[in-house]
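Re: the 270-residue chain
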Amino acid sequence: MADAAPPLRAIDLNVDCGESFGVWTLGEDALVLRHVTSANIACGGHAGDPLVMRRTLRLCRELGVSAGAHPGYPDVQGFGRRALPMSPEEIAAHTLAQLGALDALARAEGVSLTHVKPHGALYNQAAARRDVADALAQAVAAFDRRLILVGLAGSQVIEAGRAAGLGVAREAFVDRAYEADGSLRARHLPGALIASIERSVEQALSIALRGEVVAHDGARVSAQADTLCIHGDAPDAAARAEQVRRALEQAGVAVRFAGASTSSAAGAVP
């Protein structure tokens, strides 16, 4: 009897989580973390507090999920989705402070952080602006060069991470629409969020198997990704994660935290 065929490839499935704060609960972390392989945990900038961070880290340890930091602009009121007029020096300092906070709690829980992924407006600005990307990458490198920097495939943050000597992971999204240039469609525009789980599954398979997404205007865009993101603040995040993972595995894609990209090729954004 012939051996089973090996998986076509491996890809990580990540979730932005730990975004509750005080008495306010956001997302269904305990459910969605059962279906992903890495977690980006808010660390007090845009959301999260010490109790939430520690509880989320504990869940990651119990479920075998790789834990990473999800720093953002210090803007709880705007959920980190507003671009603040901060200098690169300020961005680096606030990033370091958030990494330190999460790492202290991770050590107390016996968890080693594996990666860093910026959040919201900081993520988008780092994708487009090299000065912001360099500030992030240099902060991560100063904190721990073993951490993998996660960013939009082909964007400035990937190049900045490599220049800083960091491992990088190129990211694509299963629940966000794309523009023809490979950028994410702005949240305030129609169709920016993919509500249908079926469409998310189709987009995940297209990225994992063909390395491309269909943009909002119908253009086919390259998306060479190491990790796929699901937003944990969506009401159906757990069901979406479960169905995306099942579809990937049924297609022969191994879903696991694979670490840093070894490719030097650019991704979606020229």
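The first strand starts at residue 9 and ends at 17.
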